[in-house]
Amino acid sequence: MTKEIELKKTKRLALYFLVFAALTFITTLFLPATLWWVGLIRAISEAAMVGALADWFAVVALFKRVPIPVVSAHTEIIPKNKEKIADNLAIFVRDKFLDVDSLVALIQKHDPAKKAADWLIAPGNTKKLGAYLVRFTAGTIDFIEDSAVQKFITRAIHAVLDKIDLSNSAGLLLEVLTKNKRHQALLNEGINQFAILLSEEGTQEYIAAGIVEWLKEEHPVAEKLLPSGWVGKTGADIAIKAASQLLNEVNENPDHPIRTKFDNYTAEFIEKLKTDPDFFAKAEEIKRYLKDDATFNSYMGGLWRDLKDWIKHDCLDENSILHQKISDAGQWLGKTLSEDESLRTSLNLHMEDAATKMAPDFAQFLTTHIRDTVKSWDSKEMSRQIELNIGKDLQYIRINGTIVGGCIGCLLYVISHTGDILNFLR
To answer: Is the pTM of this model over 0.70?
Structure first.
């Protein structure tokens, strides 16, 4: 049953009481006035009508204008006083609910840190918390516009590229990597790998075939007279032995001239990276290529899609990593709060301090919002909404007024005709 239907029913009930009192009063007009009980019924019904009409006026005057001279100025009370209602309601909420002392007392009374710890410790609560948060996260991600995020990522990477000096940064990086002759270890590894390559049978066959091919091209006559296969194999053995010997010397001698040349070349290369305009121009060309390359930019924009898909997939998974991490964090927090009283006390004190600092501003914001919202309502609509919510109880005031009026009429009649009633009883 809607509020409007309930209000109409109670209005009709109050009207029935008034009609009954009026019909009773009219009936007594046709009865002998000499009978004392007729006078009693008339007095009761008359007083009941007065009470019913007086309370009807009081209820109607709250919401509507009653066109009675002089009296009408003090009717339609709620619509006329919308501004005052808005101001007083806002002040009431501020002073009774949002004052600093009330909020601090509320925190002290209920110990929110302990309640939070008890809730988190309870089995299943942290899992519920994790489920709610991952669902919220998955839902929130769908509201994020992909193109805007992709553009942001691309612009951010371009901004980083603009600020980076690739040539100088590469030089500084190599300078760090070659400090204390670390690059010599790289040379050693290169020498070892080259020696292994030379020792392989396939390498030897390749060098021998190269020597034979050289003889055919440069000395075709000699190639026909000499045993070219033997010459190629022998030449390859000599070359490999000579190279291996050189590699061993470099590997065993930390002061070998080749190592010195490698040091000098590395130092010169690093210095060129840091100062040579040609290297700087090449670095700028690489940066421009990266910024303009469609494939690179498409890849960087796709990073958000991949991340978004991963988060959504993880959120939908029953064994979600994110879900488990949130649950674990909730359990750890609940256990820590439960076991550490000083931590709970500190947390409650921080909440009290936050309430003390934030309550005035929050109260001012909320009361201003309440006041402005109520003032923006249409007066008649506001009056109607109030009547729908409390009008049913107000109609019972009319009913009670009818009953109370009748009782008062009865009492007054008995008092004023006490002698007649006593004589009748004798």
So the answer is: no
